[in-house]
Structures are given as structure tokens and as C-alpha cells.
Amino acid sequence: MTKIGLEIHCQLTKLRSKLFCNCRANYRGLPPNSNICPVCAGLPGSLPVLNKRAVEKAAMIALALGCEIPERVSFFRKNYFYPDLPKNFQITQYNAYGPTSIGSEGNVEIEGKVIRMRRIQLEEDPGRLVYEGSSEKTQLTLVDYNRAGTPLVELVTEPDFENPRQVRIFLNVLADLVENLGVSDPYLDGAMRVDGNVSVEGGNRVEIKNVGSFKDIEKALNFEITRQQSLVDRKIPVIAETRHWDEARKITVSARSKEEEQDYRYLPESDIPVIIVSREKIENLRKQMPESLAEKKDRYIKKLGIPAQVAEVLSSDKFYSDLFDKTHTESNAREVANLITTDLMGVADTREKKSELKIDNKAISDLADAIVGNKLTRNSGKIALLELVKTGKSFSEVISTLDLSNVSDIATLEKIIGEVFKEEEKAVIEANTNPDAVNYIVGRVMRKTKGKADPSVTLEIIKKMISIK
Amino acid sequence: MVDRKEIAHLGDLVKVEIDEPEKYIHQVDEILKYFEGLDSVEFQSYKSVQKEISYEDLREDTCEEFLVDGKPLIESLKRDQNNFVRAPKMI
Amino acid sequence: MKIEISATEYLSLVRSGSISVEEFIAKTLDHVHSIEPRLRAYITLDADNALDKARSIDKKMRTGEKVGSLLGIPVSIKDNICTAGIRTTCASRMLENFVAPYDATVVSRLRQEDAIIIGKVNLDEFAMGSTTEFSCFGPSRNPWNTDYVPGGSSGGSGVSVSAYECIISLGSDTGGSVRSPASFCSVVGLKPTYGLVSRYGLISYSNSIEQIGPLGRKVEDVALALNVIAGHDLRDGTTSSGAKIDYVADIGDGIEGKKIGIIKQMMGEGVDGEVISATESAIARFQELGAECVPISLDAVEHSVAAYYTIASAEASSNLARYDNLRYGYDFASEGYEFKAYVSKARSRFGPEVTRRMLLGAFVLSAGYYGKYYLKAQKVREMIKSQIENAFNSVDFLVTPTMPILPFRIGEKIEDPLTLYLLDINTITANLAGIPAISVPMAFSSSNLPIGIQILANSFEEKDLLKAAYALEQTTNLPGVKI
Ligand SMILES: [Zn+2]
After folding, report:
1. Order of all β-strands in the sheet with A267-268
2. Do the Cβ atoms of C334 and A79 come within 8 Å?
3. The whole model's pTM is what?
């Protein structure tokens, strides 16, 4: 059986300051080394001072993933030399004598499969290395410490995934979750990074590192499973090692074995006192936490009567479920959900497209009301919706510019139906005995009005006119 | 028994080139032998002596730019013309 | 005008207008210039700025502007405490020309009260040592006999205070580094409770145990300095947020009715006979002052030296990792080097003791030995802490000799690190337990070398500790260094 485990690094991008100093957490787009201080640049004599909100946000992730939060939370140093590491150790968490990292032993269910979370830890991100010119030619690395010390949450799962597809679904759920919690914007470049480990039946565990993008992890895992399986099939042992994902060639390549021998010499970070997290605090946090995805889905189904499948799709997309929550009323909820999931999500499915939408919340609600009240057909509703989000106009403006309002005044309809009767004499004769012929006539009327005729009023008039005849 | 190889390994861990390992072998060995007395201490559980503080007393999440006489810190450090710090490449 | 005066005397003379700050600073600097070739307490002098500052304080006094409570007292600062504008070398070739872009919290508090920083004083490299011989600038010399070590690692602090090169000095105490030079130079030195004084700007050696502490010629001077430097600091998460205490007020209360424990393990084997008799006479004085003295046993002390050096080396190996010469340091071009080779080469500038402790630290933390050394050391620390807490349930103070032996000759023990480590046995207890301890001059040996007495108190009991030290000081009438 294939076993896959993940190590996910998620930046807490919604914080103002870094994990241990008052520099900005948002380092993106700043000139090199313009966002540093003695603490995050590792100057002698500086001391880390822990950010309260970072602990809170990390605890929220832990709670959302069903983890335990220990009463005493503490930090450790992981010692290794690297140019992007200003102190040549990383302040992180480590469960040396009992759990002291912000979360441990949680679980998440995806499609009925339980994924156990081993550990969630709060730590500092290193700086960034920039290579000067072509990387082969130059002997130098340029270091930018703007990112150094920004808050990072590392999530480690047990090897509970059976295939890369489950991994992909899990990662999507996780991205939605951190976005929903308001702790991170998972779509910012580098905000979520994933490493994996894979073993197939009869082989050793292999670590996969350096997977740049979120999407590539599935490819890397697929490649690695195939590679390992073919080794096992040929009775060649799979070596326990670390392999790097080569993005250009879309393959994994063996990293030097040296890396595995790293002795990190963990020791307690005594510059940061042990943090006592009271049980009341955790209960308060739980109360403050936004609705979980499961709770949201449940509310859509039970309170608003939305079909389970629609609720599932809607609740797992933060952008659209937020839109839904801002626009629906009790009476039009099903229709708003319909409009969003069937008409809007297909059109604007990427972040860029979502951000281009011009949405007037009231217009969406008015539109759904009009459909519920039979003032607009679903068909016209779709046309109106697309116009609404393109222009940002109000519902009434869109209806009048597009001339979409239902034709339900009897005189107009009688006139149009009269025209259809003349064109479709045969159907009119059959209509007295054949209900299909009646439907056919209704269809003709709809076509003539470009879908704007109110179907029920039209039917009534047709029936009346035929019996008169 | 600490030997040349061990000193070289430790030197590699802390990244210090040791020119004359012989200078250290005897002394490090003697000190570690003395430390071995610790092994007779009984150890079942361990309670950290580290200071404890309440979550509430942690630092508030506020920003403040660090300046040295009105200038960014990088200007007090080794840097290139683009304000990058230069490091030899990792192999 | 005499410069051999206490801080209290200085303040009243300046306040009354009998002397000007400039006069005093100028005379102190003249004295420093003349005596430094023999003593080598200072690494860097900041004479011009000190004089400017003195003039500006005099001017403030003349014009009635508000003046800080220290009125221009000349202080020296151990050179592992950051001072903006004056280099902070740690007596290491790694940081020979390092100028910190900020003041340590203790330094800014001193400056705020208008203390004048005369300069930065010598230490063992990165505070690792107990003789000040491991300084890349060479050893400082004991003013009582310049062939002898002044103690360490804050040797420059002890020498500069003892030889009137300043009135107050700040040192740092990781395993006795304030108290050892205080004892060897016949001055008063205090190691505060862990968390009483901010470590922001103190260059870390063993961050879970060290504290900045003041040295002065009088107990009251040390109390005065503590008033200024103690207290919560937002930049150091390990500082405690207790109410501000005036350590000078009521310092003469005495110790009548107090109970004092004499630690048995520190009065036996390996302790110099003259040190024992000085300690016994201190006990007798305490009894005369109305205190009750009882013997106390702390058996965890058996392992304290091993535990201390295990923890301190482990932390040192991590704390000193940042000196990779990339962001600051000395000129050493990286052409032709790969990262790790460059860093290893650059770091070969560390001196022998620092290197030795980093090697030991790497060893005790490495995967195979962690449980055997580091965890056991932490256990010993926990045991010492609980035995000390226990002791303070029945006594108010503990008393020991500060150092088990008399000051010794420069070079005598430099090749024998373990012997030097064992000299810390009496002082490290306070560091491992996090409690305050003070060394008070008690006597001179037949060879005219100083002997100090150590008093320990429970956490954050500095006020009572200073009262006890003051009471003992009143019973002695010791000479100062002849200049
Ligand atoms: Zn910073």
C-alpha cells in the first residue's frame, strides 16, 4: 500500500509584525534588506520577543484541525548553518519532553478518509537567497533578510494519504481553511509550501523536497510512486533518501545523502519563556473562530434548505460562500446559491477572474428575488447576472438596459400568441387533444419573446384562446 | 575517547576550522570524562526551570521601523551597492 | 579633590557644587591614562565624549535644567554589553571593530540618568573564563598585585572599580563572572535574580543563566546602580514585571533575627585555609549582628560544575553560531570559498577557550549523547533549584566563600581548563538556580590578596540581600588600593 505524508509550511500573512520583532510581516515587494532590525538580522545582543497574535493564529489552525493545545507552549532552537539564517539557528518548536508545540494529534476528514495531524508548530521563516546572474558562473549568493523572522506554521501529517489525489483535495481544503480562518492568504506566492514523503509496499520512505508550487506536489508524488513501484517490481531496493523535485524536467532527483545526516542539536530557546495557555483562553478562541467549513455546509443544508451537493460546492469556496452570505435572504437563499454555483462559479473560477467581478450585493439579491417571484425566467436571470457582475450596475438598471423583464401583460402576450397560432395552425388543431402540442406552442412563444414570456401566464392564455376557438 | 576525527566532526558541527586538533583532544577528553559524572544522576521526569509567562503578557502585534540615526539598519551592515548581503555560494 | 570616593559621596559633592562633573571626569581620565599601562582594564576609552557629556551636565546644573539622578558618575561597561557609537568587541578577534547600532537597555537607562560612560572594559573572550586571560587584547592585571589575575570574566570591571578608574561598572555574570573579579579585586559585585535586569544588548554566552550585574566599591553604590538598571523591559521577554523597588532606602536596617545557612559543601576540601578563616570570621560577625547561623547541606552541588559547563557550553555553541562574518565582523574576502568553508575559516578567529566550549557544546547536544549529558545537566539544575528553594524555607540567606582559593598568578592555570572550571563551584549555584548573590570584600590574605564573602538570597530578594551585605561591610574596615 502506498503511504504519503506531508509537511506543509504556511505563512501567517495576516499579521502586522514578524514573529519575534516589530518589523513588518508583509515583506513582499520591499527593497532588499529594508525590513530588518537587530533581532531578525541576528545582531549580537538582540533577543526574540514573541508576537501574541502569531500564537493566537497558530492556535486557531491547530483547533480547526482538531489538535490538542498543550497548557505549556515552548520554543526550541534548531541549529544549522545556512546563509539565509541570520542566527544560524532557527527558532521553532519541538516535542522533546512531551508535547510543547502549539498543536498535536489532530485529524481531518476528507471524503470519508481520516488524515491524522502529527504536529503543528510555529516557527520563523528564513531570509531569501537571490542568485546573481547565471547561477553556475557566480560564486556568490545575495541575501535579503526581509522575510527572515516572518511567522510560519508548519503542519506535519501522519503518512495517511493513499494517493496523490487525496493529497490534492486535502491541500485545497487546507488552503480554504486558513483563508477562512483569516490567518493566511494561501494564494500569495510562497505563502504555502509543501514537502512530502512517500513509500510504496516493500520500499523505504523517501522525502521529497523543493516542490515549489502547490500544484506540482501531485505531479511529484505521482512521479515518485511510479519510480518506486518500478524499482520494487524489479526487486531493486528503494533507498531511504531525500529527493529534490526538478521543476523543469518534472522528475525527482536524489539529493546528496549528507543532508540526512544533519544533527540539528535541538535545545530549548530560553530567551522565550514558556507560555501558559489557559483552558479558558482556548475556549474563548474556539468561540471567536469563524464557522468551520463543515459547520457552514451544515447551516446551508439545514437552515437554508440548500441541496447537499450545492452546499458542498458553495461552502468550500471562501470567496463565493462569503458572497452568498452577504446577498441571500431566507426566501431567496436557494436561488442565490443556484445563481452562484451554476452560473457564476463556472465563469469566474480563478482568483484573477474573481477579482475582476464588480458586484453590487443588493443587485444579486434583487435578481434572485425577481426569479423567485416569477418576474424573470432563470434563463434571463443568467443573462442579467453576467451583466450585473460585468458592469456593477443595479438590478433595475440592468433589467431596463437589457430589456429582460418578463412579458406577462396579457394584451401583449395575446398578440404574440395570436401570431404563433397563425404560424402553427396544425399544432393549434392538435392542441385540444395533445398536451405536447400545447407545450410546443408555449415553446414557440418563448422563442419569440427571447425567453421573457412568463411561462405560466402564457399557458393560461393559450388554454383560454384554444377553448374560445 | 575523543580523537582527531571526533574533534574534526565537532569542528564541522560548529563550523570552526581547527588548525591543530591535538591542542584540543586531551583537554576536551578530560572535560567530557568529568561531565560523565552526570550519568549517575537519576532521571525519570524533568520539570523545566524556564520562566513561565501567561499568553496575555506576550508582545502585541504592532510594527515599528528600526532606524539608526534615521537610516535603515542595512546601512550599518556589510552590503553591496544594492543593499544585498553577499554570501559565498552553497554547493 | 579625591577620586577615591563612593557614589554616594560623589553625588553629594556634585549636588552641593563642591566639585564639577567636568573636574571629576577629567581627573578620573588623567588617572586612567597614567595607570592603564600597568592594569589594562579598558579595551576602549571614550574620553572626548565623556568630557563633552560632563560639560553638558555641568551646564544643565548651572541653568537649573533637569539632571538625571546619577549626575555624571563615571561608569565602565563590560565589553560584551552593546553601546551605540563605541565598539563592542567581546574581547574577540571576531568582533574587533564591531560597533553595535544600538544601546543595551542597561546602557540607555544609565545614560538617561546622566551617568557618563568612560569606556568599555576587558573580559575573557565572550565572557568565557574566570581570569580575564582569554581576552584577545591580553589579560587585565590585579591592582593588588599586578602579577596576579583579577578574576573574571568581568575582570576589567573589577579592576576599573578597584583602581578608581570609574565609580561603578557593569559586568555580566554567567557562572560567577561579576563575583569572581569582585572577590579577587576587593570590591562589591552583585549577580541579580534571573529576569530582574534586562539582557537586551548583552551579547549572549549562556542565555538561560546569565545576568548583568553592577560592581562598586561600596554596597550602597551597587544598590544605587541596581535602582537604575533593574526592571521590566519590553525587549527582553524574560524580564519580570514586578513593582519598582528602591534598593538604597533602608539599606542600614541590619540583619538582626535573620537566619543564615552555611553551605557545608563549600567549606571543605579544596578550599584555601585563609579563605576558610575569613569565612568563619564573617560568620562570627553575622552572629554578632544578631543573626543565627546554621550549617546547610546541598548535595546536588556535587554535580553542579559538570551541569553548569554542560548547559553553558551547549548554549554557547548555539549563541555563537551567528558570527559567520556575513552581515558584520571583519574584512575577509569570500572569493574562492564555498559557504561552509568560508564560515569555518572566518570563525577560526575564535580563541582557544571559546572554541573549546563550542566543541563541548556540540558534543553534549549531539544526537547520541543528548540524554547522557544535556538532559542530566538539566535535571541537576532542577534539583539544585528545588534544594535551594527548600533551604530558603528555613533560612533567609546562604553564605559561602566567593572563591575557594586566593587570586593566583597570571598564566599559572591557563593550560588547565578543568581546574579553572572547578573554581566556579561556589558561584555557579546562584546561576543555575536563578537566585541573586553578592560578593563583599571580607579580608586580605597574609600575602595581601583580597578575599570575598558570598551571600545568596531567594529570588527577587535583592533588597534584603543588599541589607545583609551592607551590614557585613560595616563590620570590615578594609583599605583601598594605593595609587
Ligand atoms: Zn526585525
Report:
1. A89-92, A76-79, A267-268
2. no
3. 0.89
